[in-house]
Amino acid sequence: MTLGGPAGEGGHTDAPTVPLAEGSNDGVEAERRRQPTQPMGIPRRTPRPRLPRWLRRFLIVVMTLALVATVTFATLLLVTPSVSNAPALARSYDLAHHAVFPGPPVPARFAAALVSTEDHRFYSEPGIDPFAIARVLRGRMTSQPDQGGATLYQQLAKMLYTSGRSGLPVEVEQMVLGIKLELSYSKAEILRLYADIAYFGHGYYGLAAASCGYFGVTPAGLSWPQAALLAGLVQAPSADNPIAHYNVARAREAHVLGRLAATGKLTQTQASRAYRQPLHLVVGPGTGCTAG
After folding, report:
1. Is this structure's pTM higher than 0.90?
2. How many domains does the structure of the chain reveal?
3. What percentage of residues in the chain have a pLDDT greater than 90?
């Protein structure tokens, strides 16, 4: 045993040195290596769970498609014509058909009949009806009859800008123009432009000419059955002409009255009563009735 000197730095003590167990330091060091170094006072962060690979791929595909759709839509907005000239085109259209422009304001009964049968989401849609488009696409993929999906905006775009043209590219153009029309004009202006240039059969262009020509009254004086009959003519004005095809026109009138009931503009009792009322067809302007 070595005698110890004073305790302290560089000194020796009388206590024997007890050797550590073999491998104990290695175990402590290994444990320290397994634990990540964490600064004092900072809580350890829990790793965030990663999304499943299939979900990440799905989100990438969706975002890619959304980006392509956005770029495509922006391009279509740029390449399609402006709709600022819609009133001027409507004026030229009416002058070519010897119709008065602008016609009188669209009365509430005809507006309700037209919207109910042609485009019942007219007052809330952005120029196109996504639900109707989806229905049309589904029908074409399953070879079902085309039930129609064109909004009043798209129909107006067809009459003003793409008349005489057809095909998928033209339909896409009409949708874009419909959106532009919705952004540029009020609902009342759209209905008035539509009513001013729509063809109602028997040589009558515009609501004013059709109202005076078929019933001898101005648009403001249309009854519910008369308004329903005229609203039903815009899809097939020659085939549904009440002068040449009275029974077909009455069937179309019944359909429009049914749509008025379905959309809550009339009760079923009111719609049935309206259908039983006489139409008072006069075939020519009545006394005091003018198309202007």
Report:
1. no
2. 1
3. 57
